[in-house]
Design a protein that fits this description.
Elements (H helix, E strand, L loop, with lengths): L7 E4 L4 H4 L15 E2 L6 E3 L2 E3 L8 E2 L3 H8 L4 E6 L1 H5 L1 H18 L5 E7 L3 E6 L2 H15 L2 E7 L4 E7 L1
Parallel strand pairs: 2-5, 6-10
Antiparallel strand pairs: 1-9, 2-3, 3-4, 6-8, 7-8, 9-10
The protein binds zinc ion.
């Protein structure tokens, strides 16, 4: 798995804001405008992907978030562990879905890719953007306290958050 390559280091929470960049899965070539993603209908406009009306005759290309989903290569990983997760799973996931809706409305490329159960008391949430991984884990931490740790891979701009409740 690509994400298991080297380059991971622990990151303090206050360091995050300066480190993370949006849209880390950019294509090398500049896209012509207007272009839209046939999968999710995001529109590339003014140099960034956003939600909006698709212009007639617009070019088509997969947006970075849909490419990550196709490649099964998340930018963010949030692991939630502990007995608290097992007993409050639905409530926690509702909070996470709300955070996603909020972030995605502003930043079209920040989306949840998958939510999987891990062992008996864990959940792994993968995201198409590092900001959403941070937002989700901060929201869980703010709501339920517990322990939150980050690992960051600067070379590939990948974020791993581990929360234990
Ligand atoms: Zn898309």
């Amino acid at each position: 798995m690509k994400a298991d390559r080297g380059g991971w280091r622990p990151l303090r929470r206050e360091e995050l804001r300066d480190e993370l960049v949006h849209d880390s899965y950019k294509s090398k070539r500049k896209l012509s405008e207007p272009t839209y993603c046939p999968e999710c209908n995001a529109v590339y406009h003014s140099g960034r992907w956003q939600w909006g009306a698709v212009a007639t005759g617009a070019h088509q290309t997969l947006c970075p978030a849909c490419r990550r989903t196709h490649d099964k290569f998340p930018a963010g990983y949030v692991t939630l562990k502990g007995e608290f997760v097992a007993t409050n799973r639905d409530e926690i996931l509702q909070l996470i879905r709300n955070r996603e809706a909020h972030e995605k409305a502003e930043h079209a490329l920040e989306r949840i890719m998958s939510i999987e159960d891990v062992n008996d008391d864990g959940v792994l949430i993968t995201t198409t953007g590092t900001h959403l991984a941070r937002d989700i884990s901060e929201a869980v931490h703010a709501a339920y306290k517990g322990e939150l740790q980050y690992h960051y891979n600067k070379e590939e701009n990948l974020l791993r958050a581990s929360w234990t409740g």
